């Protein structure tokens, strides 16, 4: 029996160039939700056709209640809502055999459609000396459970990031970044066809090694201003590196580091700008 776990973010979905498509208060959001659900269904159907037995989908964008439950494939299970203890990687554990990320974007500071790392307040994440974004951090969590990430779909910048971190991974470029808020994109119909094709390729290829995290990793988070770092440093054992907006946390495992990161970024958003 094979279990596939899928994380679906939104900024890397085909046809979505800017935040009017991914923010629930904006006028293009319902269009974004529908295309996001289409892409999720494409990978789900392809995986079932290949012979995967069990599929769990984790809505991984913002408040994580974006995928249209009434339109999701009836045989898949959906994790949605906020707050989740493990955020974008909720449901990923040692019972999962394979993982896939779709709708993904590049990390903060890099070219890519709506590129960022969790929040606008984050400039960089490091795990020891390795700089990562959401994609890399999530892949490390998968690796902790010996789960390989076999497929990443998103814009060209996200796919390049994935190929740098995970040798041999299958990637699916559904749009190309012209700037942080413009794109050259496939139509949703063509994008879903390509996701299906790439899903079958990924499932059929020889095994990919999981991205193994370091033992007892050091997490460092660089914020955009000192107030954000101060809020993050309210967490016990989190310290600010002198003269910087970087906070540091010595974790027991990557799971500890991930939950600390989630708490830090949520606390940092409490900063009021003046």
TrEMBL record:
Xref: InterPro entries: DppA_N, Peptidase_M55, Peptidase_M55_sf
Gene3D superfamilies attached to this UniProt entry: Dipeptide transport protein
Segment forming the signal sequence: none
Domain of life: Bacteria
Pfam families: Peptidase_M55 (PF04951)
Record's protein name: M55 family metallopeptidase
């Amino acid at each position: 029996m094979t279990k596939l776990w899928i994380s679906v973010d939104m900024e890397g979905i085909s046809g979505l160039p800017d935040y009017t498509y991914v923010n629930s208060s904006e006028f293009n959001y319902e269009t974004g939700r529908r295309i996001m659900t289409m892409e999720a269904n494409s990978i789900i159907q392809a995986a079932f056709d290949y012979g995967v037995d069990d599929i769990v989908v984790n809505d991984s964008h913002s408040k994580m209640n974006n995928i249209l439950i009434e339109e999701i494939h009836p045989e898949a299970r959906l994790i949605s809502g906020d707050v989740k203890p493990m955020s974008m990687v909720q449901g990923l554990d040692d019972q999962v055999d394979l993982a896939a990320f779709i709708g993904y974007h590049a990390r903060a500071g890099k070219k890519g459609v709506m590129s960022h790392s969790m929040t606008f307040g984050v400039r960089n994440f490091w795990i020891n000396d390795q700089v990562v974004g959401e994609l890399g951090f999530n892949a490390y969590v998968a690796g902790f459970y010996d789960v390989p990430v076999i497929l990443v779909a998103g814009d060209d910048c996200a796919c390049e990031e994935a190929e740098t971190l995970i040798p041999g991974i299958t990637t699916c470029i559904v749009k190309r970044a012209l700037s942080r808020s413009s794109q050259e994109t496939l139509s949703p119909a063509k994008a879903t066809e390509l996701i299906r094709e790439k899903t079958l390729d990924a499932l059929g290829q020889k095994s990919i090694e999981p991205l193994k995290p370091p033992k007892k990793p050091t997490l460092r988070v660089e914020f955009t201003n000192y107030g954000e770092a101060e809020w993050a440093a309210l967490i016990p054992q989190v310290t600010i590196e002198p003269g910087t907006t970087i906070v540091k946390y010595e974790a027991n495992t990557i799971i500890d580091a991930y939950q600390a990161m989630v708490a830090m970024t949520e606390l940092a958003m409490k900063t009021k700008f003046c």
